Amino acid sequence: MTQVADGPERSAPVSSPGSSVTLRLGPHVVSPPVVLAPMAGITNAGYRQLCREQGAGLYVCEMITSRGIVERIPKTFDMLRFDPGEAVRSVQLYGVDAQVMAKAAVILCEEFGVGHIDLNFGCPVPKVTRRGGGGVLPWKRDRLAAILTATVRAAEPYGVPVTMKTRLGIDDKHLTFLDAGRIAEEAGCAAIALHARTVQQAYAGEAAWEAIGQLVQHVSIPVLGNGDIWEAADALAMMEQTGCAGVVIGRGCLGRPWLFRDLAAAFAGEPAPPLPTLGEVAAMVRRHAVLLADLDGEKYGLTDLRKHMAWYFKGFPVGGDLRRSLAMVSSLAELDAALAQLPTDVPFPAHELGSPRGRQGTPRAKVILPQGWLDSQVAGDDDLSEAESDVSGG
Asked: Which of 51, 61, 109, 123 is catalytic?
């Protein structure tokens, strides 16, 4: 468990802050102050639309690499798809070179009409950290400052706000979040999001919400909290306990896109909507399938849907054979046949409320770093370009 200065203990669900709570990012007002975290292979245009249909907020595209944009790699460009209902096109950009990031930002603004750029400095994947990228890059303060400053300046003429996401640090002994917040503020970032875990923790253990509160006190720009928001009440509790300006929702919405509906109600001070029955979950799965089929064609879209099935039906009494059928669908007709076998009136499994979803695991024994990485907090002219391939979020 990451150790930071003493902070408030977690408590039971708190009262709603009311419908007046908003988050301002440059020209954009995000109300309620809820952001869908970009998740590799998850937050494509279809899933973003599904979540947005549940409640307002900011919904971020899957993370893309700056070199993929600048080099105009078709696979990267293919990820930059948006549906007509996305009033603000939001993209998370990853990179390690200031000038490449700046060029990518210009392309996103000019050619794709992107209205918000988030920069990722939270990836804990070993193949990235061993090359100095992702969540370990903020250790090199000069490189972080150069990237943030160049990207903010590149996006500024287009009126596009730039934000950043980071972690607490490399491990308990090498925390970077307070310096990262200061650097982000000085660079002109519109906000900073903090996943309150270290790179060493990855997705294990409990998020250190008290660190979010520390960052709020340390900077004047908005701070967004991320980590262990499984229910709407968790978001309210985080904001009350830390003073953060908004929340970032990641694994908590896997198989539960209606979490955004619950969040909208909670921030508006309205009663919590009833939990969905198995039949209502099946209808959500069907809607998700249609959106993915519209995006990529029926065969590919339904294949992409397969990984969501375990999340959607987690805790429900769905037999093994039927679960396997759902996990193997390749057409809408096959999906309809499988969903028709589900009893519609089974209540939502209450024991699943508040339970983690998605990646968890255990903390790493150590973070894999480049040779001598911790010897200095200055990167200088180090070539980190190899850290920009095949990364995922943080």
From this structure: 123
Share of the chain above pLDDT 90, in %: 85
Q: b/e for 361-390, b at 16 or more Cβ within 10 A? A: eebbeebbbbeebeeebebeeeebeebbee
Distance from C-alpha of 82 to C-alpha of 44, rounded to nearest angstrom: 8
Radius of gyration of the chain (CA): 20
Closest listed residue to residue 79, CA positions, set 60, 106, 103: 60
Same domain flag for 224 and 302 = no
Residue 154 inside a domain? The answer is: yes
Percent share of the chain, pLDDT over 70:
93
Identify the helix (H) or strand (E) that includes residue 91.
strand 90-94
Q: Residues with Cβ < 8 Å from 257, sequence gap 6 or more?
A: 47, 50, 51, 53, 54, 284, 288
Whole-structure pTM value = 0.92
Distance of CA 327 to the CA centre of its chain: 25
Distance CA 367, CA 253 (A): 28
- Residue 123 known to be catalytic: yes
- The number of folded domains in the chain is 2
